[in-house]
Please model this.
Amino acid sequence: MPTVTVSVSVWNKIERVDGDVSILEEHRADLLEELREVVCGEE
Model:
């Protein structure tokens, strides 16, 4: 299931942030792109 894989990847990135919202903001574009790939379907 790609959604589960993306969820784990997203959580891993968020856990690395350690509550620093400014760092999370820096990763926002990457997280959105990763989610978009799953929503639009993988080739």
Notes: The chain has one domain: 2-40. The mean pLDDT is 69. Residues 21-40 form the longest helix (20 residues). The chain is about 85% helix and 0% strand.
